[in-house]
Amino acid sequence: MGLLSKKDKGLILDPLADNNPITIQVLGICSALAITAELKASIVMALSVLFVLAMGNVVISLMRNIIPSKIRIIVQLVVVAALVIIVDQVLKAFAYELSKTLSVFVGLIITNCIIMGRFEAFALANGPWKSFLDGIGNAAGYGLILVIIGFFRELLGSGTLLGFKVLGDPIAKTGLYALGYENNGFMLLSPMALIVVGIIIWVQRSRNPALVEEN
Amino acid sequence: MAINTDKNVYTVVFAAVMVIVVGSVLALTASGLSDKIKENERFEKQQNILYAMGVNENVDEGTVNFIPADKVEAEFTKYIKEQLVIEGDKVTPDPNAYLINMKKEVAVAKSGGTPKLPLFVGEKDGKKFYIIPMYGKGLWDAIWGFIALDDQMVVQGVYFDHKGETPGLGANIKQRYFMDDFVGETIMAGTEYAGIEVAKGNNDPTNLIKDDNEVDALAGATITGNGVSAMISETMNLYKDYLKTIRTN
C-alpha cells in the first residue's frame, strides 16, 4: 500500500474532475470571474486558497467537537479571517514584495464560498488528516479551473501568457498580428469568464453523461 | 467526555473565549511585527520616489525593478537633495517629509483646511526633478503614486500603486506599459495646470502625441483610469501655486 489509502486518494482526486467545486458544485464562482483576466493572478489565487483551505480545514476539524453548532458559521469565518490576516502580516514583515502581490486577494480568499463550504460539509465531520487532504483536493480542483480560465482569457484577451507576448506584438504588428489578428478585449471582462466556465461545464458533462442532472 | 455544545451558556462562553484568544493572537502578531512592517513601508516609499525620478534597476521594457531595499536608504540620500513641506505660502525643508501621509493631507485639503504637502527635489546627472506624491481612489479602494516633473512641467516619470484594483484590469496601472506612457507628457494646457487624462479611444495607442494631456487607457479598467486622471488633476490643483514658482517656460 502506498502513502495514501484508496479513499484518501479519492479525497484529493475527486474534486479535480467529477466533483469539481467550480464546475459541479458551482462554488467560488465570484473569485473565478474576478481575478482570471491573467494567468499569473489565477496561479497566485489558486496557491493562496490551497494554503488557507488546507490549514483551515485542519483547524476546524481539530475543533469540530467543541464548536457550538449555533454559531459554527461565525467560528468558521473567524478562523479563516484570522488565518488570512496572520499570513498577511507575516508576509508584510518578511516578504514584503510577495505580500504586495497577495494583498489584493486577501478579501477574496476570506469570502470564497469553497472555504466555508468545505468547513461545513467536510471538516466538521471528519478527522484532521482527511480534512487536510480534502482541503488540498478541493483547492486544487478550484485552482485547475482558475488556471484554465486564466490561460484562455489572457491568451485571447491580451495575446500574452504570464506577461510574455506569445502571439507577437499587437502595436508593432508582428507574429499573428501581422496577419490581421486582433485581441478580443471582451475576453478581459468578467462575463467572458462565466462563458468559459460554461464551456468547461459543457465539455465535462458531455464526456461524462453521469454528471447530467435528470429533469 | 461529551460536552453539550447546544447549551446557551456554552455558546456564549465559547464565543467570548474565541474572541479573546483570536484577538490577542492577532494583536500580538500585529504589534510584534509592526516595527519590521513600518521599516518595509518606509523603504517602499523611498523606492517609489526614486523610481518616479528614474533611479531604478529596470533592465528591459517589461518589469518594474526598484533599487533593492538594503541599498535604498543610501541612494535616497544621494539623489534626493531637498525635501520640502508646503503649507499654504510657507515652504519649509523637512528631512522626514517623505513620511507624511498623503491620505490625511488630501482629506484636510478637501475639508477646507491647509494641508502639509511634501515635495521632493531630486537631482540626477545635473538635472533637477520635482517629485510630487499623489493620492486618490480607484474602483475598489485607494490608489496612490508619485509623479516627477522637470522645471518645464514635463513628466519625467511616474509610479502608481493601488490597494485593491482588479488583477489583470485596474491593477495594471502599476505595469510599465501604462506608467511609461506618461513620460514626456506635459501637464500644462496653455497656462492651465491641467494634469493628464487617461483617455479611451484617443487614437494614439503608442502615445506619440505628447502635448495632448492624454495617455491611452487600459481596456476594462475605466473607473480605475478615471481615478488616475482625477488623482493627477486634484494633485496639480493642490500644488499649482508652488509649481508656478519653479516653472521656467
UniProtKB/TrEMBL annotation, chain A:
Q: Which GO terms describe its biological process?
A: sodium ion transport
What is the membrane topology listed in the Swiss-Prot or TrEMBL record? Answer: Multi-pass membrane protein
GO-annotated molecular function: oxidoreductase activity, acting on NAD(P)H, quinone or similar compound as acceptor
| Catalytic reactions of this protein | a ubiquinone + n Na(+)(in) + NADH + H(+) = a ubiquinol + n Na(+)(out) + NAD(+)
Give the CC-aspect GO terms. endomembrane system; plasma membrane
Places the protein is found: Cell membrane; Endomembrane system
Sorted UniProt keywords? Cell inner membrane, Cell membrane, Ion transport, Membrane, NAD, Sodium, Sodium transport, Translocase, Transmembrane, Transmembrane helix, Transport, Ubiquinone
Would the keyword Nucleotide-binding be found if you checked this record's keyword annotation?
no
Name the protein family: Belongs to the NqrDE/RnfAE family.
**NCBIfam families annotated for this entry?**
nqrD (TIGR01939), PRK09292.1 (NF006777)
Subunit structure of this chain's protein: Composed of six subunits; NqrA, NqrB, NqrC, NqrD, NqrE and NqrF.
The protein in question is named Na(+)-translocating NADH-quinone reductase subunit D
Organism in which the protein naturally occurs: Cellulophaga tyrosinoxydans
Automatic annotation (TrEMBL), chain B:
- Please state what class of enzyme this protein is: translocase
- Localization per Swiss-Prot or TrEMBL: Cell membrane
Annotated FMN-binding domain ranges read: 138-239
Record field: transmembrane: 12-33
SMART domains attached to this UniProt entry: FMN_bind
Q: Needs which cofactor? A: FMN
Membrane topology designation: Single-pass membrane protein
Q: Where does it mainly reside? A: membrane
Does the entry feature the keyword Ribonucleoprotein, yes or no? no
Query: So what EC number does this one have?
Result: 7.2.1.1
Cellular component, GO, one term: plasma membrane
Arranged from A to Z, the UniProt key words for this protein are: Cell inner membrane, Cell membrane, Flavoprotein, FMN, Ion transport, Membrane, NAD, Phosphoprotein, Sodium, Sodium transport, Translocase, Transmembrane, Transmembrane helix, Transport, Ubiquinone
GO molecular function annotations of the record: FMN binding; oxidoreductase activity, acting on NAD(P)H, quinone or similar compound as acceptor
InterPro entries according to UniProt = FMN-bd, NqrC
Q: Which reaction does it catalyse?
A: a ubiquinone + n Na(+)(in) + NADH + H(+) = a ubiquinol + n Na(+)(out) + NAD(+)
As stated in the Swiss-Prot or TrEMBL entry, residues carrying the post-translational modification FMN phosphoryl threonine are: 222
Coiled-coil regions in this chain?
none
Q: Provide a GO biological process annotation.
A: sodium ion transport
Pfam families in the cross-refs: FMN_bind (PF04205)
Per its database record, what is this protein's job? NQR complex catalyzes the reduction of ubiquinone-1 to ubiquinol by two successive reactions, coupled with the transport of Na(+) ions from the cytoplasm to the periplasm. NqrA to NqrE are probably involved in the second step, the conversion of ubisemiquinone to ubiquinol.
Subunit structure of this chain's protein: Composed of six subunits; NqrA, NqrB, NqrC, NqrD, NqrE and NqrF.
The UniProt similarity line reads: Belongs to the NqrC family.
What protein does this entry describe?
Answer: Na(+)-translocating NADH-quinone reductase subunit C
Give the originating organism: Cellulophaga tyrosinoxydans
Name the gene. Answer: nqrC
